[in-house]
Amino acid sequence: MERIKVILKSGKEQSVRRFHPWIFSGAIKKMLGEPVEGDLVDVYDNKDAFLAVGHYAPSSIAIRILSFEQVTPDVSFFRKKIENAIAYRKLIGIIGNPMLTVYRLIHGEGDGLPGLIVDYYNGVVVLQMHSIGFYRIRKEIAAILVELMKDQITAIYDKSDGTIPHMAETKAVNEFLYGDSAPVVVTEYGYKFKIDWTTGQKTGFFIDQRENRKLLMEFTEGKKVLNMFGYTGGFSVYAMKNAALVHTVDSSFPAIELANENMKLNYGDDARHESFQVDAFDYLNHIKDQYDVIILDPPAFAKHHNVLANALQGYKRLNMKAIEQVKPGGIIFTFSCSQVVTKENFRKSVFAAAANTGRSVRIIHQISQPPDHPVNIYHPESEYLKGLVIYVE
Ligand code: SAH
Which class does domain 206-392 fall in? Predict the structure, then answer.
């Protein structure tokens, strides 16, 4: 089928020539036809030179580029990309590691497949499409995964309801594309977590904090630990291995229930753990010198650039409270998962927070996302998770 040609405004080809995989709607000069959402389109510069082929969508990210070469992204094209994603994860020891039955199999732009997220939960694969282009070929993607991973997959669930563009006419339905499964228990470095992709946030678990959870244990031996925004209790479960006490805080009741369930799965009834369904900002007001270690892993405060300033204020306020309250000689693990907040901006917020308290603060680790969430060097936005471990005197 003939693909519709999209011509960019003069100058707007530069980011494409530097292999950035997104084209914003404002960069488009004209389209020679009317693409339907999710169509493959060819992108040309203002002088009629071919630039790329990608999926079109009626959203601010108008085109997600699949290739900078004049190729046809068909089933064999996607099979090759998915094969690469699997081979890479075998290379880094994520696939085939009995200690890890939970990992990200495809990380969108980071794996050259913009708009496609695939997480693996002990046999159950959860897809999350951020583009209609991928939503339209979800069955083909599922078939490729089954073909390539055969006996390692029992079910494939598509959870794109909340992630494809709002302006789209296509309305996604969450459903199994292959097999069927009740919630499963996964193993992460020997710790167990129950994953419920249907009710959970995102695809069910924050896989991206795996290495940071492991790092946390270096600081929790015999300590009093506070896990703010605890969700499934990921950090809490690791800390419980050696801490004196662990408190999990989340404003959502289902999250608290999940954290309690995961704690029980690993430790049975253990009085060292308690959880509280309260607002994090309120909780932090009344805990002066109660905790040695505090984890701050809030939801993304900024989803768009236009709320960036407010988000940075939010990070500052939150970190200020924690820095004020932590015991002398305390440790804080502080994170931002907002894609629009850069590493520099986040660090400045923590700096401003520290300066307001006047306490001595040292950065002892600068952390990010693990290698199954690779960062495409041409797409700095794929480095979305930023964290600092700070020591507060
Ligand atoms: N740290 C978690 C992920 C956190 S997701 C992990 O490693 O898995 C963010 C969590 O913050 C959600 O569970 C959400 O319910 C909770 N949350 C959002 N706003 C909150 C608030 N004001 N106070 C407390 N919890 C909040």
Answer: alpha beta
